[in-house]
Design goal:
Layout: H1 2-18, H2 23-63, H3 68-98, H4 103-106
């Protein structure tokens, strides 16, 4: 996982440096690249957190089957909170890519 993130980061960084030196297009390339990296990190972190939460819930149910009724609703609420992190990062990334507030400054 660390290798994938490292290779992706190096690839995006080299892509940004290979573009022309004009400030306008360079700004948009960096914004898109940072948005993509943030979304990739959020997705990986959420996947790991959800896997860990499900693992612990299954272990708890296996040790005490009578507690399954209490564990399952808490697990579903926790998974919803974990998933909301990725959705928030996606919303911010889409705002930065398609409706960036700094666009007017760079397109003067």
């Amino acid at each position: 996982m660390k290798r994938v993130l490292l290779v992706t980061g190096i690839g995006l960084f080299s892509y940004c440096l290979a573009q022309d030196a004009s400030g306008t297009s360079n700004f948009f390339i960096w914004t898109d690249s940072v948005s993509i990296m943030a979304l990739a990190i959020a997705v990986v972190a959420c996947a790991l957190a959800q896997g860990n939460a499900i693992n612990k819930a299954v272990e708890g149910i296996a040790r005490q089957p009578e507690a399954a009724g209490k564990i399952q609703p808490l697990l579903l609420v926790g998974l919803g909170f974990i998933e909301s992190l990725t959705i928030y990062v996606l919303v911010v990334a889409l705002i930065l890519i398609f409706a960036n507030p700094a666009t007017t400054h760079f397109l003067k």
